[in-house]
Amino acid sequence: MNDHEISLSPTEQAHRVRQVELLISRLLRIGVLTSLCIIVLGMMLSFRHHSGYRESADELKHLVSNDAEFPHTLPQVWDGLMQLQGRAVVMVGLLALIATPVLRVAVSIFAFIYERDPKFVVITSLVLLLLLLSFFLGSVE
Amino acid sequence: MTPVAFTLWSFGASIVAGVVGSLLGLGGGIIVIPVLTLLLGVPIHYAIGASIVCIIATSSGAAAGYVRERMTNLRVAMLLEIGTTSGAISGAVIAGVISPRWLFIIFGLVLGYSALAMFRKRHEITAEVVPPDRMSDRFKLHGSYYDEAIGREISYRVTRAPLGLVLMYIAGVVSGLLGIGSGSLKVPAMDLGMRLPIKVSTATSNFMIGVTGAASAGVYFSRGEINPFIAAPVAAGVLLGAWAGSHLLGRLQGKWIRLLFVVVLLWVSAQMLWKGTFWR
Lengths: 141, 280
Fold this sequence. Notes:
heterodimer; A: 0% strand; B: two-stranded antiparallel ribbon; 11 helices; globular
């Protein structure tokens, strides 16, 4: 690749780097606030549905015991959501929180294209690939 | 204890974990796991599941501020994430082949030594002269940030990037195998090895741990180890704590960050040595 053909002026380069920093910062803030709101909403739903949560200590033993019931596959989360179960709503918020860093890596690829930085486009794509590979390996295990 | 009281307790402890984690670039598991298991009687696998959520929340909660303030070195973070993610995958693959016992002892010693080395250079703000490094130049890793505590812009040069990559790979393998040390190995690698200023090291580590955390979170979710009743107050508390911590880091002196980190490092090191020595 011909480096001088695609390079930007130093001021334009610095400007774009700053724009990208602000974009990533904003993306993280939106991801965090969205998931926080969904998690709090889900907690409120749970506490409203189960009035026993305020008095009964037995309820707690059940909630944190090894056979506690909660959704842990995507279809289960979806079913719980349709019934407006608080724990399914919480799970959606937690999944949004987990997705935020992955999304951040994906967006960074485009950010480095915008910065005209081919080396880092390759590096970031490699990181995303490794991330997806580890998801895949995890689900096989 | 009622479920409401449980929620409030874990929420409060998680705020503390978020503040400490965001200042030091750690996941906060060293606070969340003992509080959940020892004080609140949560089974260990749910506590670990919650601590993975804690890592991601610390990272994302503080990173918005750190990236905006240029405390995070985005390029260093991206480059080193190649090391951590490939290390984590290798760790998962070789799990069961290597006995964790010796790893606990080896890395307990490594962390103890890092604590000592970091304590010795506690008064240093940035390295005066760093050895030139072709990789850092080629990837334009050098940077600068505005230090609120000192009141001026601090420029720094990065060095030994290849060593940094190797150390991050090892850090990835180890945290994949042992489940601890997501940040406690990364910060010394950047501080002592690549000679980044301490605040840049913790902020960059903070940024990186979210990615590795997200990679393993999927596994914990499908194994049913992320219990929403436990993880929800942890996530909410950590997010608030990390947000607060990210506003604190700029104002604190680097010396105090280092000292706090040394204390935590000694604690983690002792814990690893203990586990290795009394391994059954």
